[in-house]
Q: What sequence folds into this?
């Protein structure tokens, strides 16, 4: 058995709003979709976005609060300073841009549905 790829799928209240956030603010490209489901791409990575009411119909026995666990979408970049300057006044920042003890610079914020997103850049050692 060979694992090919990991593609997160976010279950959201408003697909169009989430697509606009990831495309217009974070630089993803919409490769397919409508107001119920969308597939986005950034580099070789993909992100899927699905309407919560549709997901509820597909999994009616799953009764979980909207944010019933913690997850963090980590996006690696080669120019974190530029991205931080572009978006820091437009998102709710939870961890300010900082260097870490494990060799990165990163910051964490939330998207329109409260999912945590972290940009990270590996530092030259």
A:
């Amino acid at each position: 058995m060979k694992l090919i790829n990991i593609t997160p799928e976010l279950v959201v209240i408003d697909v169009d709003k989430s697509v606009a956030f990831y495309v217009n603010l974070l630089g993803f490209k919409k490769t397919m979709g409508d107001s119920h489901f969308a597939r986005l791409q950034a580099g070789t990575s993909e992100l899927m976005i699905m309407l919560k009411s549709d997901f509820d119909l597909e999994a009616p026995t799953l009764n979980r609060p909207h944010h019933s666990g913690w997850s963090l979408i980590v996006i690696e970049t080669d120019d974190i300073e530029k991205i931080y300057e572009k978006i820091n006044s437009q998102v709710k920042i939870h961890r300010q841009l900082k260097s870490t003890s494990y060799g990165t610079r990163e910051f964490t914020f939330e998207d329109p549905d409260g999912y945590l997103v972290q940009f990270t850049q590996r530092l030259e050692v």
